[in-house]
Design brief:
alpha+beta
Length: 259
């Protein structure tokens, strides 16, 4: 309410106001995901509060990918509209107002119609496995420790099957707000180097926990606990109960967004 100490203006997301793009990275271990939740620390809440403090107005952030609790981001993108005239000083202000596990890499004015979610053409995620027999304190909370044998040819076969358009109902929770379950996967590739084996996957969009369930299910195939034929059948719209476990969140990173 105007005139009261500490009051902020409330700016609705409406056409006509300049659109701002924020590029963000964060370590997800200290957050209950992206989306605001009562009584929980979330990336959206922390950023929106920081923006309100820096600009004196509340904004509604739109995000390219709503990461779950514990999931990291190397290259998250968000957008908002403002009546103000943000500059480079806003980036510095936001980094001073948020925790050290969240970094605003860039703030820039975008085309008026820019929307971080709707304008995105694809998202890329990386799931990291640390495969050394002995755990590493440096990878704790950053990669899933997997000291078990992996059949690389099985992983290669799974990635080939995942490419293209499929019904991924089996790879997202049964209780969901999603209506359409078909997604187009443009890249699915396991890349190994030293003690790390990483799944890189790019799609037009992802459903909740989709990458983590795909990862968990592929690991079952590569460990000999599931057949390749079973994995292939899941891509035809099987129920969630047919797929494997959901891999732990701390191995997953939002690696990039394409516009």
């Amino acid at each position: 309410i105007a005139g009261r100490p500490g009051a902020v203006r409330v700016v609705c997301t409406v056409p006509g106001l300049p659109s701002m793009r924020i590029d963000i990275e964060y370590a997800g271990g200290g957050f209950s995901g992206w989306a605001k939740q009562p009584g929980q620390r979330t990336v959206q809440e922390e950023l929106e509060l920081a923006i309100a403090t820096a600009l004196g107005e509340r904004v509604d952030l739109t995000v390219a990918g709503r990461t779950d609790a514990g999931v990291h981001a190397w290259a998250q993108v968000a957008s908002f509209r403002t009546e103000g005239d943000p500059s480079e000083t806003l980036r510095r202000s936001l980094n001073g107002l948020t925790g050290r596990d969240l970094s605003v890499v860039a703030v820039a004015q975008a085309p008026e119609e820019f929307d971080a979610r709707r304008a995105a053409k694809s998202r890329t995620y990386c799931y990291r496995l640390f495969t050394r027999k002995v755990a590493s304190p440096f990878e704790e909370g950053r990669a899933l420790w997997w000291p078990h044998p992996l059949e690389r040819s099985a992983l290669d076969a799974c990635e080939a099957l995942t490419l293209g358009v499929h019904d991924f109902t089996a790879f997202t929770p049964t209780q969901t707000a999603h209506v359409h379950f078909e997604r187009r996967v443009m890249r699915c590739e396991w890349v190994a180097s030293a003690d790390l084996t990483c799944l890189w996957i790019e799609a037009d969009s992802f459903m909740r926990s989709m990458v983590r369930v795909i990862t968990g299910t592929m690991l079952e195939v590569a460990s000999g606990r599931r057949t390749l034929e079973s994995f292939e059948s899941l891509l035809e719209g099987s129920p969630r109960a047919g797929a494997g476990d959901t891999a732990a969140p701390h191995g997953l990173y939002l690696a990039g967004v394409t516009y």
